[in-house]
From TrEMBL:
Organism this protein belongs to: Streptomyces kanamyceticus
Residues covered by the HTH cro/C1-type domain: 41-96
Gene3D superfamilies: lambda repressor-like DNA-binding domains (1.10.260.40)
Name of the featured protein: XRE family transcriptional regulator
GO molecular function: DNA binding
Length: 99
């Protein structure tokens, strides 16, 4: 478990320009991973023509949770990422080289 106040700010708040999320420059490694997950998730949804609501219905994941991940407002947990990856049949967690 991450200690201290590492998750006291949303991932997007770790960006140099939070309004540019998920394309902003991010120095924090954990926020950069969430940023890559958000970009991969957005691409997977676009490729499948799914809205946030459509993805929620298909995957059985709360629409707000999907929106929060896409918008960098939350630190997604492993269960959520695993369900998104399995349901979309696409990897979201970035390999080390993509961070």
């Amino acid at each position: 478990m991450v200690g201290g106040n590492a998750r006291s700010r949303a991932p997007r708040e770790c960006a140099h320009d939070p309004e540019a999320w998920p394309d902003a420059v991010v120095d924090d490694i954990a926020a950069a991973v969430v940023q890559t997950i958000a970009r991969c998730l957005a691409a997977a949804l676009a490729e499948r023509g799914l809205s946030r609501r459509g993805a929620a219905d298909l995957l059985g994941i709360n629409r707000q949770t999907i929106g929060d991940v896409l918008d960098g407002r939350t630190w997604p947990d492993v269960a959520t990422i695993a369900r998104l990856e399995a349901g979309l049949n696409t990897p979201l967690w970035p390999p080390l080289a993509r961070r």
